[in-house]
Amino acid sequence: MITSDARAAAPSLRCCLLLLALAWPVAGAADSRPVQVASALAVRAEWFPAAGDWSAVPPAALAKAQRDLSRDPHVTLVAARFVVERLQQDGQTAGYFVTDQVIGKFEKIDYAVALAADGSVRAVRVLKYRESHGHEVAEPGWLAQFAGRTAQDPLKAGRDIDGITGATLSVVHLSEGVRRVTRLVAALRAAGF
Description:
This protein is α+β, with helices and mostly antiparallel strands. The protein contains 5 helices and 6 strands. α3 (59-70) packs across α5 (168-190).
């Protein structure tokens, strides 16, 4: 026999089951949890295995370079969180390692850029991707197109950087991010760092 209390609880139970079913991941569905692709230290060690002396660019020099960069009409500094390290070997600059952050469509994308002593891009890696779609921007094959680029390259998505269907804003913003990193390092190099 079903009591009136049980009948009253039935709609609540059905609601709870429906909400649970809606929240349950479906096979093949995009996972909206952040994807930690790599840690910055692991990537730096991978890219510069025979590293000499690492030093962070002094905050005052970084702030001045950012001020100079803010006047560049081809650069946006939205969500910028630069951390710039310079590698020195035998008293000479051997390269730069920069981590930064851009906004994908709604969420932030953490990424790292390795640059040679001349300021050209050696490699780019997505460190953390938080969007529910567009993870393809973290694929090594897509990121490889940044190698060899410099501060003089426009790095425009759809022109000299391939687009990705379903990740348009992530492509645009990551391309803008790499552009601003190359120009930031060019400004630091011009200032003697």
